[in-house]
Each structure stands twice: as C-alpha cells, then as structure tokens.
UniProtKB/TrEMBL annotation:
It comes from the Bacteria. Pfam families: Ribonuclease_P. Keywords: Endonuclease, Hydrolase, Nuclease, RNA-binding, tRNA processing. RNaseP catalyzes the removal of the 5'-leader sequence from pre-tRNA to produce the mature 5'-terminus. It can also cleave other RNA substrates such as 4.5S RNA. The protein component plays an auxiliary but essential role in vivo by binding to the 5'-leader sequence and broadening the substrate specificity of the ribozyme. GO terms for molecular function: 3'-tRNA processing endoribonuclease activity; ribonuclease P activity; tRNA binding. One of its GO terms (cellular component) is ribonuclease P complex. InterPro entries: Ribosomal_Su5_D2-typ_SF (IPR020568), Ribsml_uS5_D2-typ_fold_subgr (IPR014721), RNase_P (IPR000100), RNase_P_CS (IPR020539). Transmembrane segments: none annotated. This is Ribonuclease P protein component.
Length: 71
C-alpha cells in the first residue's frame, strides 16, 4: 500500500478493513479468479461501509462482460 494513503497506522487500518471486506466477498468471486485491490488516498478517510460499497461496485463491474462496462 502506498504511503500516499497516510502514515503507517492509517495504512494498516485501511489494509485490515479491506482484507476483512474481501474475505466476506470471496464466495461471489468465480473460482480461480485473481482480485487486486488498490487503496487510493481517499480510502484513509472513508468509512467501513463506504469501503464495502466501493468494493461491491468494483467487483460487480469486474464481473460484467467487457462490452457492457462503462468507462
């Protein structure tokens, strides 16, 4: 995780939150898929619920066929 997210305490908190959120959503991912989560600086100030909603939106977008994705 980039130092742009914040100091070590903040980066570790965001990392723990994202790990927990991803763990809750592993069942909806196709077997054998690879998920890469990158925290942007705004994640430091985001609530747990907001991180979850953003992760849900990203997973839903990734599961869509490429021709239907919005840019």
């Amino acid at each position: 995780m980039s130092k742009a997210v914040g100091p070590a305490v903040v980066r570790n908190r965001v990392r723990r939150q994202l790990r927990h959120l991803v763990r809750e959503r592993l069942a909806v991912l196709p077997e054998g898929s690879t998920l890469v989560v990158r925290a942007l600086p705004a994640a430091a100030g985001a609530s747990y619920a907001r991180l979850g909603a953003d992760l849900d939106a990203a997973v839903a977008s990734a599961r869509m066929p490429r021709s239907r994705r919005s840019r």
